[in-house]
Amino acid sequence: MAGTLVIPLIEARIRVQGLVYILMGLCGAGLGFAAYFLAGFTPIEAVLLAGAIFLGGALIEERAARRRAFRRLEKGVEEMARLLATDAKAGQVLSERVNALADLDLGPRLDVIEADMSVLGTVVRQVAEAVSELETAQQSGTIYQPTRVATPSSPETRRSPTIPLADVRRALDEGRLVHNVQPVLTLPQRKLHANDLIPRLDIDGRLADPPEYMPVPNAEGNVVLRRIDALCAEEAIRIVRRARLNGEAMRLIVDISPASLADRSTLDPILTLLGANRAVNPDIAFAIDYHDWAELDKAESDGLATIAQQGAALAIRDTTTLRLDFAALAEKGVRYITTPASKFLKQPSSLTDFHSSDINDYIKRFGINLIVTGLETEPEILALLDDGVRLAQGRPLGGVTALRDDLRDEGNDQLRRLAAR
């Protein structure tokens, strides 16, 4: 179409240029006749004058035509350059988009989609099974009774300490609180992921575990609990800091009680230590029992939030159910949830509505790690591998042991006693 428009324009210009030459010829001839008849030129001189005028006009017209053609050519080149620049810019934008798509890491997104599809498939299967059971119950004339789930308001009965409170207080005064650790390993590699700080009490040359001496939360017991929490928090920060100085990262899970969270005289020194060691705070997780977590009041919740604001992680121990709002827990800073292996492997339906092989991936989506504790045998580890659990703790993976020499506090016992008070 463009070619059909250009050709008539060229023909019109040629016709106009021919008309100009004719007019120039007529002008030259008229001037030649005027010179012959009026100026007395000879015929040869008149013809030469007419020819000179015609040639001069033709040269002027030809030069003007070339200038016009040159200007048109320049304009065309500029227009083409502008179009090429636009095309180059569009090509650059397209190249950037292609590079962005090429650099896009779709692996994590695909993993999330696969986890969602797996969870959705499990839910659909469970709904189908529930509907089938309901229809069977209706046909047989029986009434469907849903299984009651244990709630935090009805926890298992806790064991009472066997060591008198006075002996515990005396041991703390004498600096006989020993800090041991129990590893949390990754499966199936069995590599160290974190250490659980276990405070044990030296009673008559024997190391007593926390269930044997940990006081009952009451007026007198809370005082001792706060002292233990302060000592454990201080020691945890020291251990993680020493590990960093040795060129290694060491995650540590340390217990803290609600009694310390609501007491500013105990919590403020802990916050001061955390504020002075912000570089190592992400390696520390303060753990609280699930029953205590469910019953935290506003002051205790605020205290836990201030710990999370310092960069430390939070952990919930011994959860009796995994029917939790994990998104809300992640916002509060929870990074670990532990559940006993006995329930997870033998009674998974009492913990969650998901299939046991899907719950770990579901929780992991929110940045929370599930730790199955209390393992007793190797077959239990194999069962956890089948269920996709990646963190575990128990006797086959490593018991409670002393700290390494390079991480152990070799300070003065008198200073420890003063700190314990």
Automatic annotation (TrEMBL):
- Alphabetical list of PROSITE patterns matching this protein: EAL (PS50883)
- Which stretches of sequence are listed as region Disordered? 142-161
Keywords of the record, alphabetical order, are: Membrane, Transmembrane, Transmembrane helix
Q: Which residues cross the membrane?
A: 19-38
Spell out the Polar residues composition-biased ranges. Answer: 142-155
Q: Name one Pfam family in it.
A: EAL
Looking at the keywords, is Phosphoprotein present?
Answer: no
Q: InterPro entries per the record?
A: EAL_dom, EAL_sf
**Domain EAL as annotated: residue spans:** 161-414
The protein depicted here goes by the name: Cyclic-di-GMP phosphodiesterase, flagellum assembly factor TipF
